């Protein structure tokens, strides 16, 4: 038991470049079993993200962790965040404020999911996105190889104005495809957020619920004043920075629900 979030070490995660559509990023891979792509949150592949990746490996998954921004292994300091944000805001690859645009990183992530599916057992793969990358996890589900999408505190597009606040983080055309797959039972999504997190508006999850119906499961952790979990009103990172490995801890239970969700979709015979 600890009062700090679990962390991991880069030394255990060999990296190799992966190129698709003219875009190249390093991908760190480890584990055995069904495949899961874990896309880092801002500011990048932090020790806390690696701690989540280690947990997924220990739970029986093959995990591929791309490093699309930031310095791998660097702690999530304010300085690290400030270095990354300008690129995410203006880069054509990510377009943090834009809606209804084509983001090259989405295409790259889909090809990574297909590649991981070809290398791993099971009927398909899962994709986890967090914070800025939450919506990308759902956009990846346009690919038939993706059977499970986890959107943890999906914060993009940054919710400036009502239209962006309600935006699901992917184009209408892509959301139409995912909704059709969900209606056929081909893909399910799990969304997580803290109740007081203004960066992840209620309206965004309402949009996803309206389009995906029962295929979209929501876990909302209480971060209101005096909440039982002791979370600050500013709590944001459900699966990484806020996790404490103590029985009954709400973020720990949320992490375990993510593991169970992935097993249900990717290894149903084992559940």
UniProtKB/TrEMBL annotation:
It comes from the Bacteria. The keyword Transport does not apply. Keywords: Hydrolase. GO terms for molecular function: hydrolase activity. Pfam families: DLH. The keyword Protein transport does not apply. Residues 32-237 form the Dienelactone hydrolase domain. SUPFAM superfamilies: alpha/beta-Hydrolases. This is Dienelactone hydrolase. It comes from Amnibacterium setariae.
């Amino acid at each position: 038991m600890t009062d700090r979030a679990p962390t991991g070490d880069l030394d255990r995660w060999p990296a190799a470049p992966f190129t698709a559509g003219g875009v190249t990023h390093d991908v760190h891979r480890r584990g055995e079993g069904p495949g899961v792509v874990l896309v880092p949150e801002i500011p990048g592949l932090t020790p806390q993200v690696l701690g989540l990746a280690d947990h997924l490996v220990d739970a029986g998954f093959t995990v591929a962790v791309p490093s699309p921004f930031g310095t791998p292994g660097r702690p999530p300091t304010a300085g690290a965040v400030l270095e990354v944000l300008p690129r995410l805001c203006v880069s054509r690859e990510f377009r943090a404020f834009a809606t209804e645009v084509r983001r090259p990183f989405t295409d790259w992530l889909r090809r990574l999911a297909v590649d991981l599916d070809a290398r791993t057992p099971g009927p398909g793969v899962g994709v986890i996105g967090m914070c800025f990358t939450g919506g990308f996890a759902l956009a990846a589900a346009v690919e038939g190889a993706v059977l499970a999408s986890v959107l943890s505190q999906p914060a993009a597009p940054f919710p400036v104005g009502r239209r962006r606040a309600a935006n699901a983080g992917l184009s209408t055309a892509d959301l139409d495809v995912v909704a059709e797959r969900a209606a056929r039972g081909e893909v399910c999504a799990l969304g997580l957020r803290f109740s007081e997190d203004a960066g992840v508006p209620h309206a965004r999850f309402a949009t996803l619920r309206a389009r995906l119906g029962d295929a979209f499961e929501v876990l909302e952790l209480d971060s209101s004043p005096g909440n039982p979990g002791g979370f600050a009103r500013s709590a944001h990172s459900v699966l990484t920075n806020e996790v404490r490995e103590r029985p009954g801890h709400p973020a720990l239970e949320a992490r375990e629900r993510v593991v169970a969700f992935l097993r249900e979709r990717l290894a149903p015979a084992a559940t």
